[in-house]
Structures are given as C-alpha cells and as structure tokens.
Design goal:
With 300 residues, this protein is of the alpha/beta class. The protein has helices at 7-19, 22-29, 33-47, 66-93, 106-111, 113-121, 136-144, 213-217, 226-234, 280-292, and strands spanning 97-104, 126-133, 150-154, 162-177, 188-189, 199-201, 221-223, 240-243, 254-261, 265-273. The chain is built from ten helices and ten strands. Strands 1, 2, 3, 4, 5, 8, 9 and 10 form an eight-stranded mixed sheet that branches. It comes from Pseudomonas cavernicola.
C-alpha cells in the first residue's frame, strides 16, 4: 500500500530545504520547531528514507541526503499541482471559472440575457459561456439531450423529466409598419385584423385555441427567421403578431400594438432536467436569475 503523503508535511520539508533551517521553516509555518521536526520525521518514516543528513540542526544548516535532493523536485511538483487544483476548484465553486452552456429563445437571448450575463459574470475572465439561440422546441431538445446546462423557453411540450420554472410573462401584439393605418391604434382586437395580409411566424401558434386562431389559418406567408420576417414587414408585405419580447424596441420603421381582444400571453422560464444537478456555474446563474426576478431558489 502506498504511503499517504500529506501536503502540509511536504510544505514543511520544502521550507526546511529552501530556508536552510528548521527554525526558519517553523516561523514560516507558524509552528514550533519540534513540531516541524516531528512532521519531517513522520514524512521520512512514510518514505522509508532519510531526507536530511544526520547533523545537529542547532549548529549546522540541514543538508539534504541524495534521496532528499531527488525528492525535493517531486515534493514541489505535488504542492504546485495541489495548489493549482484547489485554486481552480475554488474559482469553479465561486462560478468564476468553467464553461457555462445555455440555450434560449432569441427574444430573451437578445433582450434580457446581455444585461443578465454582464452583471453575473463581472470580472470572471476564466468563465466561458456558450449561448445557443433557437426556438422553444430546439431549446427543449438541447436540454433533453444534455447539450446545454439549462434552457430558457416557453414550454410547448416537454417530457416528464423536464422541469419548467416560469420567470417572465410576455403578451402578444401586432407588428406593422409605422405608416400602416393600424399603427396609430393604442391597442387592437383580432376582428380589426380581418382582411389584412398576415405573415405568420413561429410564435403564431400562441393564437391557437383563442378567438384569433382563424388569423393564422388565413395567413398568406410564413417566415421562420426573425431577420427575414422583419425585412418583409419593412417592405410592407403585411403585418404579423409577435410577443413583446420578440419585437426589437429600437426598430424605427415598425410599430408594436398590444392585442387586447383576445389578450394572449405566454410564460417564459427556465427549463432543466428535473432530477439532475446543475454544474456549479449554471446553478449560480439559475439562482441569480431567480433572485433577479424576486423569486427564491429554495422554492424550486
């Protein structure tokens, strides 16, 4: 059975060798000189070899034996490796190191996550982040296949092993060009949209089961990509419905008008594996988002 070498004993040995004395090593370790001598003697017993020549430590500087000279390099290597691991794990425990993988619907990825991640990461230069933005189905698939630590999505369909924690509520509105006749309305009802050329998109399913469901069925166009959808709206091809978070607020050519009849909302939240612990950094971000929205992590 291999001997159990304690890091503290290795430190004592290195300090005696480098500081050229048991007294200096004792001061460095904040221990008594007999305690350092006992530590070195115990280390020698474990190794089965003497580390220092048999001399009077009070009158002569300790001299390494040939075995001690050879072991000194290994001792330093072990101490350096130990300290490096402890430092790395401490950074990970403080979510300042590691690799954080998140998937999110584009509306949250572009509107909310930049500010959240900026405040969460701070000066943690060793924490790497991979962010994948896609629709809710793709986000759920990445969570289920464990490609990401957790996802941010609206919950369409999920398996029994997926946990959904609602964070934000989003309402649907109508988006059109600023020069469109509807653009001056403070809010709209779905009947006012009859006869308009509607461009459906991936979020149009939110109208399913509501009074406005027929609008989706009557859509002349379908756009799956947000950039293409906005380009079509800018060109005056028609109007669309979008959740408020999905509408770029700085857009100068388009207008968002709340849809009040029917009032259609969606919950957006964190999706994660129900029975699997998150990595340290992901758990810290999860709790940060909950507290940022005045929710308590212990409730989940």
């Amino acid at each position: 059975m291999l001997p159990d070498l304690k890091i503290v004993q290795l430190r004592h040995f290195v300090w005696v060798a480098e500081l050229h004395g048991f007294h200096a090593a004792a001061e460095r370790a904040h221990r008594t000189q007999p305690a350092i001598s006992l530590s070195i003697r115990d280390l020698e017993n474990k190794l089965g070899q003497s580390l220092f020549e048999k001399r009077n430590a009070r009158v002569a500087r300790p001299e390494l034996t040939p075995f001690g000279v050879q072991f000194l390099g290994y001792a330093k290597e072990l101490i350096a490796h130990h300290d490096r691991v402890v430092k790395d794990m401490n950074l990970i425990a403080q979510h300042k190191s590691g690799h954080l993988r998140i998937a999110s619907v584009p509306s949250i990825a572009s509107r909310l996550l930049p500010d959240i991640l900026t405040r969460f990461i701070g000066d943690a230069t060793d924490l790497h982040v991979s962010l994948f933005d896609d629709n809710s189905e793709a986000v759920l698939a990445m969570v289920e296949s464990q490609q990401v630590d957790f996802g941010i999505a609206s919950l369409w369909e999920a398996g029994s092993d997926i946990q959904f924690i609602p964070i934000w509520e989003d309402s649907v509105g109508v988006v059109c060009r600023c020069d469109h006749p509807l653009a001056e309305e403070p809010q709209l009802g779905w009947r006012q949209l009859r006869g308009e050329r509607l461009i459906a998109n991936g979020t149009s399913r939110l109208l399913a089961g509501s009074e406005a469901e027929e609008l989706v069925a009557d859509s002349q166009f379908y756009m799956s990509n947000m950039i293409s959808l906005l380009a079509m709206l800018e060109a005056g091809m028609g109007i669309t419905t979008l959740p408020r978070f999905a509408f770029p607020p700085e857009h100068g050519q388009l207008r968002f008008i709340p849809l009040s009849d029917p009032l259609v909302t969606r919950d957006i939240g964190i999706v994660r594996q129900a029975n699997r612990s998150l990595p340290v950094a992901a758990q810290a971000l999860f709790e940060f988002i909950l507290r940022d929205n005045e929710l308590e992590p212990d409730d989940w």
